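Researcher: I'm preparing a figure for a lab meeting and need a structural model of a single chain. I don't have an experimental structure, so a prediction will have to do for now. The sequence is pasted below. Please return the structure as tokens so I can convert it later.
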Amino acid sequence: MASKCAVVGANGFLGAVLTKKLIEKNYSVTAVYNNGYSNINAETEKLNIVDFIKSKDQFDFIFLSLGNYKCNHQELIEINNIIQTILENNNSAKIIFISSTNVYGIHKEVIDANSAFNNPTLYPLSKLAGEFIVSAHEKYAILRLTYLYGKNLNNGSFLPNVIKKSIETGEIVLFGDGSRKQDYLHVDDAGELCVKAMESKENGIYIGASGISTSNSKIAEIVSAKHTSTIKYVGEELGSSFYFDIKETQERLQWNPEIDIVKGINEMIS
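Model: Understood. Here is the structure written out token by token.
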């Protein structure tokens, strides 16, 4: 009998990819959504979050992919209350909690799983609160994911914005000299990491990143090569660069990111 999985947040960017991946691997999947389910395959079993919380069904694995940086303080509190309730209702399930590398705040050095938390803002603070709740559970994995990208990303962040401007105006505008670097993890690689964490017999906290940081200017060059654009540099870049050490994640979960940034961006543009 196939193990039963619930993906809470299945209509989100990562949740939709993860749901599809679990089904392809022959797991029994319930897709749990909040306000809509347009990104969930029509044939997939679906439950509204309210009905899921009321349900007496027991699951082997529960993925918690909830909230984003646009949520306000009260919404983030409510999300963690939901997490607590789900855990109380599913004592025997392994919980895979989707956190964020934003919990570390700004660092000049390379960040690993044990790096200090440097003054995280509201959203990452709520993720740390969620981690605290989940880590009290008997079986868990916490995944601190970096910037996820891939087809259907439309959250108005740097990468989709660069692509949008390139297509619409033929011009990409970067701040400063374009040297700011970020680690980009393709959503398909993130989905595979989620499955590896689920299948592991260990509890653990893991960084989910590619281990390669790419500059804004390089991103612009990749986009421009696919859709010819002018790259313009203006003003000053106020954002920080980020670098992540993923060796521990690779070794403990036998996972490696497979989609490089050029291939991933080209898929987004095509």
